[in-house]
Amino acid sequence: MRLLVIGGVAAGLSAASRARRIDPSLEIVVLEKGADISYGACGLPYYLEGRVRDAGQLKVYTPEYFRTERNIAVRTGARVVSISHARREVVLDRAAERVHYDKLVIATGARPRTADFEGAASPQVFTLHTLEDAERLKTYLRDKQPKHALVIGAGYIGLETADALRRNGLAVTVVEQSPDVLGRGDAELTKAVRERLERFRVVLQLNTRVSDLQGYDLAIMATGLRPNVEIAAEAGVQLGPAGAIRVDEHMETNLPGVYAAGDCAEAPHLVTGRPAYIPLGTTANKMGRVAGANAAGRRERFGGIVGTAILNVFGMGVAFSGLSAGQARREGFSPVSARITANSRAGYFDGRPMTVELVADSATRRLLGGSIWGEDGVEGRINVIATALYNRMRVEDLEQLDLAYAPPFATVWDPVVIAAQQLSKMV
Amino acid sequence: MRLLVIGGVAAGLSAASRARRIDPSLEIVVLEKGADISYGACGLPYYLEGRVRDAGQLKVYTPEYFRTERNIAVRTGARVVSISHARREVVLDRAAERVHYDKLVIATGARPRTADFEGAASPQVFTLHTLEDAERLKTYLRDKQPKHALVIGAGYIGLETADALRRNGLAVTVVEQSPDVLGRGDAELTKAVRERLERFRVVLQLNTRVSDLQGYDLAIMATGLRPNVEIAAEAGVQLGPAGAIRVDEHMETNLPGVYAAGDCAEAPHLVTGRPAYIPLGTTANKMGRVAGANAAGRRERFGGIVGTAILNVFGMGVAFSGLSAGQARREGFSPVSARITANSRAGYFDGRPMTVELVADSATRRLLGGSIWGEDGVEGRINVIATALYNRMRVEDLEQLDLAYAPPFATVWDPVVIAAQQLSKMV
Question: What is the pLDDT of residues A277-333, one digit of tens each?
Fold first, then answer.
């Protein structure tokens, strides 16, 4: 029995590793098109910034490690160009080599969307998606000493890259075609991010399309990700409405024995009840783990996502989970929201103001989402909201939560509880 | 209609304030036996330490504030010596004054348990429960310059006070009559706290009863709290098995129109399903809020506690929620536990190892509790566990949680998820 995994970063290696732990006798082969496997892609902005000094810090494991420690064969530079499910084999670009499989995990990831503007193909335009991208960009920064950077897109990658470039002394402008940052349709969150960027003299231009690169000697395209689904789709694997691979809760595609996981696949969103395409490393790992278990004969399910994310914008944590009020309205809910600002911990323990916005459905009083920003304690609070969303909590239960309190860590009324109390009066 | 509140610290003032917001026409009187109201008792160790420079920082509101801003009459130095519910009045010690009530909230708090040993009544023995206690102790430290402190009891107050005294240059010994710290019956947590104390040259003696004060010029009694229930019990208010006032989910006692909240009352424990006596400021405030709402005519319920607590021991956060394995066994569960150590965030963002122990019931796979210790990120993770316990989550759901990930804040597999994965294999 051979398990073949296409893709050797987060989802693919999680799948392979989990399958190995479940079935020591399985033959497991991972095909990775790039030169590197198992790298922490979320660390690329910090490698660019210089906080991560050596790309080696981001490489978690080597193919050699997988071979000797886990009995998993990992081939790099192995690009799959087609899948023939009838024959249970994939075809590589190199010499049209064919590799047989009994079970297949598709973890082909995603690639950056490209923007179309004058000069988009010129050498000062970069993406920051792979370790190779980061290496190229670092080389360019060192060799060409660019002074004016244009970041196209105000999503995670765009904002984190803006931070990294600014800290390297470049003048940075972020342009975003929508009216908001981070794809949330949230004006207050956008305002908070804008103020933070401006404090560090980063220019944010919303509602703006880039037409050319005039005035910039460096541009980063960070306009989102597109799932790599072409070879899967050609093989008859169904896609979902967002264009990513449709999977059931076992991460199986419509083709029996063919699983998909990670940035190429949809995930069930527990708040909307529908599949969503929100490619993130933590989700990829969780999906991969389930795909690997099931490819090895288990029958596990992936619990779904609630859309939790966090990023650092010049020392301010920005996090959200679930839906913004605007997103909730578009999903057919009747959202009501409350926003409060409260201290992260006692003032004499350097507590900082944090803003918590909660959204609930006025028809059911169910919590639909939350967003938080502040210099301290954001990650812990968004995780409470993520856990509440997973459990479909109602607002009146959220305000009852028995959260930890001592002055070094929190305030006696936790900001999340204060926000829930406020919202409870309104729904 | 007059609402009378006995006690002007956490629960009492929360009750009074909430009642006022609900009913602007209610007459509200708060009787506080001490000189101070509304102080942050949880900050007392930090006042002792010197981090809080001025006791005024701990006084949140004054009686004057309550009178002018909230139309609530607060009388300090007003000690209630009896309640006559038949007459709907309380009797004060001063001139046997009688004060009528229509609704009554009992928020009489708790007092330190006393230990019996030779010298227990001598002037170098202190408790740290009220602001006056802290003032007296600070005066003693300044005037007498004691060198060797004995802390009796290794609960929150004992450990926090040991920290505060050590940072003031005293040699500190903590003695505890049980085999464990913090009343958890948890040997690993005890070991972690012991190592931390020893690193800062604080001596911890377990299984030890104090017989005398030989060798010490300062002693702190921190052997736990006893609820102040005497006047309530004499008036016919029922007590629960732990000796605190029994309340229903509306915070009402067996006497109609008489509510109790805070450190004098029991709270329903959602993990055991039985009332518990765990006096903490955050619980007191929540209970008081519900008592005040219902005394003002609402019909709200208190959701209960899961036993969450956190403290700082020389820079190490120590937190728990729910039951330890030993506690779970005594409650009739069949506990299984898993303990892992993982980084709080990426190493290049100064991530620190944290230990997470989770306990589940092997019969139902339900999460029963968790404990966490480490130098970073403890408060956020214990709150995830507290939220999971509130929602009666099972282990296999806990490992599915969509928690926030970015290198400045977490690791791609959150320590709570890693612990849940580990435990999932065992239940």
Answer: 999 999 999 999 999 999 999 999 999 999 999 999 999 999 999 999 999 999 999
The CA distance from A111 to B287, in Å, is 52
Q: Residue B401 corresponds to which tokens in the numbers above?
A: 């949680």
- Selected catalytic residue, list A22, A27, A40, A42: A42
Distance CA B4, CA B72 (A): 10
Half-sphere exposure of A395 (CA within 13 A, CB side): 27
A2-38+58-110+226-295 shares its CATH topology with A125-221: yes
CA distance A66 to A14: 12
**In which order are the strands placed within the sheet that holds B89-92?**
B80-84, B89-92, B98-100
Of A390, A377, A394, nearest to A310 by C-alpha is A377
Instruction: Tell me whether residues A403 and B282 touch, CB distance under 8 A.
Output: yes
Q: Which of B395, B421, B415 is nearest to B403 (CA)?
A: B415
Beta bridge partners of B319: B310, B372
Q: Residue B349 in contact with residue B408, Cβ under 8 Å?
A: yes
Q: b vs e for B287-300, b when ≥16 Cβ sit within 10 Å of the residue's Cβ?
A: bbbbbbbbbbeeeb
Is A42 an annotated catalytic residue? yes
The CATH number of domain A2-38+58-110+226-295 is 3.50.50.60: yes
Cβ within 8 Å, pair B42-A390:
no
Percent above pLDDT 90 for chain A: 94
Are B390 and A402 within 8 A, CB to CB? yes
pLDDT band at A56 (very low <50, low <70, confident <90, very high): confident
Each domain of chain A, given as residue ranges in start order, spans: 2-38+58-110+226-295, 125-221, 309-424
Helix (H) or strand (E) segment spanning residue B395 = helix B395-398
Please tell me which residue of chain A has the smallest CA distance to B314.
Answer: A408
CB contact under 8 A, A282 and B413: yes
Residue B60 half-sphere exposure toward CB, CA atoms < 13 A: 17
Mutate to test the interface with B, among A22, A61, A402 (most CBs of B within 10 A): A402
Q: Which of B2, B34, B42, B79 is catalytic?
A: B42
User: Confidence class of residue B55 from pLDDT cuts 50, 70 and 90?
Assistant: confident
| pLDDT at residue A140, rounded to an integer | 97
